[in-house]
Amino acid sequence: MSTAADELQAAAYKARTWNALPANLRQPLAEWLETTYISLAATAHPDWHPVVAPDALAVARAINGAQP
Prior knowledge:
It is built from 4 helices and no strands. It is elongated. With 68 residues, the chain is mainly alpha-helical.
């Protein structure tokens, strides 16, 4: 079972090469998702990830193709 942090990490990887995004947005989006992933993985219990970073998780799920 994947955690919200895992979803963020996967989305950050996909965002770097996702052709649906303009090239100038890929890097900043990936960096934001990675920064959020690192912060969550280091500080929050997995059960709290959706509560602490709901906006980043919604973006990650959209990129990963999952339902919010």
